Amino acid sequence: CFSSSAAAHIGVGISGQEGIQAVLASDYSFSQFRFLQRLLLVHGRWSYLRMCRFLCYFFYKNFAFTMVHFWFGFFCGFSAQTVYDQYFITLYNIVYTSLPVLAMGLFDQDVPEQRSLEYPKLYEPGQLNLLFNKREFFICIAQGIYTSVVLFFIPYGVLSHATQSNGVPLADYQTFAVTTATALVIVVSVQIALDTGYWTAINHFFIWGSLGTYFTILFAMHSSILFNIFPKQFHFLGSAHNTLGQPVVWLTIALATVICIAPVLAFRFLKLDLKPQLSDTVRYTQLVLQKKQKPCGRVGRGVGGG
Amino acid sequence: MMASSYSAKEEDGHHSGPAGLGGAAIRNRKPDNTAFKQQRLPAWQPILTAGTVLPAFFIIGLIFIPIGVGLYVTSSNIRELEIDYTGTDLSSPCFTCSQSFSWNSSTPCRCVLFFSLDQPFESNVFMYYGLSNFYQNHRRYVKSRDDSQLNGDERSLKEPSKECEPYRTNENKPIAPCGAIANSMFNDTLDLFYIDPNGTKTQIPFIKKGIAWWTDKHVKFRNPGGSNLNLTAVFKDTAKPVNWHKAVYELDTDSENNGFINEDFIVWMRTAALPTFRKLYRIIQKKNNMTPTLPRGNYSLEVTYNYPVRSFEGRKRVIFSTISWMGGKNPFLGIAYMTVGSICFFLGVVLLFIHHKYGNRNNGSDIPS
C-alpha cells in the first residue's frame, strides 16, 4: 500500500482515521481525497512552470556572465585574466541576480487558480515535458552565449577607440570592466523582467532593489573610503565615477541591451501570435475579462459577493 | 495570532488531532487565509501583445537612427592623424634605432619623422602614443604591482608585495616602484616642431599635466614621506626598476610631477584592456580663437627611441587627435546605432506584416476545450 508512493515520482498520502503511515512515506499529504485536484492542477502545474522558468533563466544568466571571459581570452593571451572586478564576480550570483529569480520561482503564475481548475488540459505540458527538455535547455544556453558575445564585443568595439571628453582614453581595463559588468547586470535584469509573468510587490522590490544594490555597492567599493583602508583590495578607486559619467559608456550599455533583448522580444511575440499555447490563450482571455470587469466591479462591489 | 480564531471552520471536515476536545488545545493546521499564503497577492500580469511590442520596435528604431547619425557626423568632424614610427622598414627614419638596441646604452638613439597636415587642427589637440601587440591585460602582468607602495605606505616601500616578483628586489634593495607594470614603462620622448614655409623650426609647447585621472593623481598615487619634498632622501635604500634609465625621483624636476605622482607614470600604470591601445602623452593647448592649434603645413616629430618593441613584434605609433563631447574619433558607435535602429525598425515592419496576415486575432471567446 504505501510502498507504491515510495516507488512513484511523487507520492501523495491521505491522512485519515486509519492512521498516518501513508503520510510518513509520501512527499505530500493532505486530509481529503478531493484536495488531490488542487494539488495537481493548481499547485503542481504552477510548481512545474516556476521550476522550468527558473532553471532556464539560471543557466542563461550564468552563461552570459561566464562566457565573456572566454571571448576575452582571445585578447589577453589566454592568461585567464578576468573581465570583471573580483568583487563583482563574488557578488553577482549572491546579491545582484539571486533575489529576482527567487521571487519568480516562488510567485509566478501564468493563469489564476480558478482557470487552472476549469481547464484541466493545462496540465498537459507537465506530462509531456514540454517546458524544460533538451531542446529548451539548448535554447537557454544559446541565448546565454549570444548575450555574452554581445556583452563583450560591443564594449570592445566602442571602448578600444573611445576617449573621454577630456581626452583621456577609455580603453583601460577598469573602465572596460565596469562597462561590461554594468551592461551585464542591466541585460539580465531586463531578461528577468521579461520572464516574470506575475509581478507582485515583492517581485518589483527584488528586481529594482537588486539593480539599485548593484549601483550602490559599485560606487561604495570604488570610493576613496574603502581604498584608504585596503588599498590592495579596492584598487578600482574612481572607476565607477569616471566610467559611468561618460555618455559614451551609457550609449554602449543601451546598445548592448537592445541587441540582446530585441531578438528575444520578437521571438516571443511571434510565438504568442502565431502558435499560442492553451495557457497563453487562457491567460489572455482572463486579462481581457479582468479589464472589462474593472469599471463594473467598482460599481457593483457593494452589491453581490465575489 | 491565536489558532483558535480559525478553528470554527468545520465545514471542510477538518480533523485536527483528537476530535471533540475544543478550546485552545487543538492545533489548527489549516494555512492562514492571507493573500500571501494563498497566492492571491495583487499583481501586474503583462502580456506581449501587438499593441505593446510593435510600437516598442518602431520607437527604438526611431530613437536609435538619429542618435547614430548624430554620433557618426560628430565622429567624422574629428581630426585624427596617426604615424607609425616602429621603424621596421628599411626606408623608415627610425630603422637604425629599432635594430640597434641595448639596455646599457647611455647615448639615446634619435630619429626624425616628417609629416604634413592638409587641414588645420582647431581647439585642443591631444597627443597619444600607441602600442600594438602589447598585452597589458595579461593576468600575471596585471597583478604585478603594489598599490600600497604606490599610495605612499612606508612599510610597503621597504617591503614590496610578493605579487611584484620577480621585479621585487634588486641587489637586496627593494625596487620602488615594484612590479612588471612599472618596469615596462614607456620611455620614448616625442617632440613636435612646426616647419615654417621659409624653413624655420618652432617647437610646439606641450602640457604634461592633466593627462591622468584626477582620483589617480590625488588619491591613489601618493609619494611616501608625506609632505617631505626631498624625494631623493625618501627613496634612499630603494633601487630603481631594472629597465629604467632614471630613478623614480628623477622623473621630473617639478616636485608636483615627480616620484610616484608623475603623470606619465600614472598613465602607464593604468593598464589597458586590449593588446592594441593608446595612452595620453601630451596636450597641445589652443592659443586663441583666431589661430588654429596646429596650422596647415609641414611638421617634424623628433623621437628619442628608448622603448624596444622588436622582441615581441609590437608596433609604436603617435596619434594627434581633436576631441568632441563624445571623445575622439569613434565611428563604430555611430554605425552600430544606425544599424541596430534600422534593423529594429525593419523588424517592426516585418512583425506588423506577419501579425496582420497570419496573427491570431483572439477576441477572447474561442478557447479550445
UniProtKB/TrEMBL annotation, chain A:
Pfam families named in the record: PhoLip_ATPase_C (PF16212)
GO MF: ATPase-coupled intramembrane lipid transporter activity; metal ion binding
Keyword entries, A-Z: Magnesium, Membrane, Metal-binding, Transmembrane, Transmembrane helix
Signal sequence segment: none
One annotated GO biological process: Golgi organization
InterPro entries: ATPase_P-typ_TM_dom_sf, P_typ_ATPase_c
Top-rank taxon, per record: Eukaryota
Topology term for the membrane: Multi-pass membrane protein
GO cellular component, one term: trans-Golgi network
UniProt main location, coarse: membrane
Protein name in UniProt: Phospholipid-transporting ATPase ID-like
Annotated gene: LOC113080829
TrEMBL record, chain B:
GO biological process, one term: phospholipid translocation
One GO cellular component term: transport vesicle membrane
Membrane topology category: Multi-pass membrane protein
Record has Disulfide bond as a keyword: yes
Region called Disordered, residue ranges: 1-24, 145-169
Chief site of localization: membrane
Keywords, in A-Z order: Cell membrane, Cytoplasmic vesicle, Disulfide bond, Glycoprotein, Golgi apparatus, Lipid transport, Membrane, Transmembrane, Transmembrane helix, Transport
TM region positions: 47-73, 332-354
Tagged with keyword Cell membrane: yes
Subcellular location: Apical cell membrane; Cytoplasmic vesicle, Secretory vesicle membrane; Golgi apparatus; Membrane
PANTHER family referenced in this protein's UniProt entry, alphabetically: CELL CYCLE CONTROL PROTEIN 50, CELL CYCLE CONTROL PROTEIN 50A
Family, similarity comment: Belongs to the CDC50/LEM3 family.
Protein name: Cell cycle control protein
